[in-house]
Design goal:
By secondary structure, this protein is of the alpha+beta class. It has seven helices and eight strands. The protein has two domains: 17-86, no CATH class; 89-191, Tetrahydropterin Synthase, Chain A, CATH 3.30.479.30. Helix 5 runs antiparallel to helix 7. The mean pLDDT is 90.
Length: 192
Amino acid sequence: MATTAKQKGSEKWKTKQWFDVKTPDVFGNEVIGSIPASDAKSAVNRVLKVSLSWITHNPSHSFLNVGLRIDNAVNNAATTKLDFIENQFSYLHSLVKRHSDAIYTYDVAKSKDGKNMIVKLLLTTRNKSPYSKKHAVRLELSKYIQEFCTAHTADEFVKSILSSEFQGEGLKRLNKIVPLSKFEIKRIELKG
């Protein structure tokens, strides 16, 4: 009995096709690996979680992960679109220090090209701050995110995150309200 089950499993494995997975245009459309699938249709909509530093070859991106959703598979090649970018929990957890505050935010925005985005951020203050200041930071941050997203396409927004332009501008703007030590991406999700 056991040998029959093993043979069936191995025979099924032999029928699988391998698809070369390409990154989205924003990351240069390069092949980053291969996945097995019984056919092209079953490969579509899979989400691959990959370290961003593996794609960009930039060590400063080593704590960031990206989710790449396969949107098309033809002739043993699978193209992807960006589903999410997130920082590793262990990295974010290490940023919160004693005698400081962590401000977690959640905003929904629409890019210039009409893509809906969920933007989750973590800000850390240099010192303990009163609730009124943290509330003012959240309001100003929501305003900043809306302005930035409507002025940029989704790809431009992702590039600004990778170059830290988005974080730098935000830090400069919010430091006027309360001194911040970190402005980090918790998770960005792209919809549609």
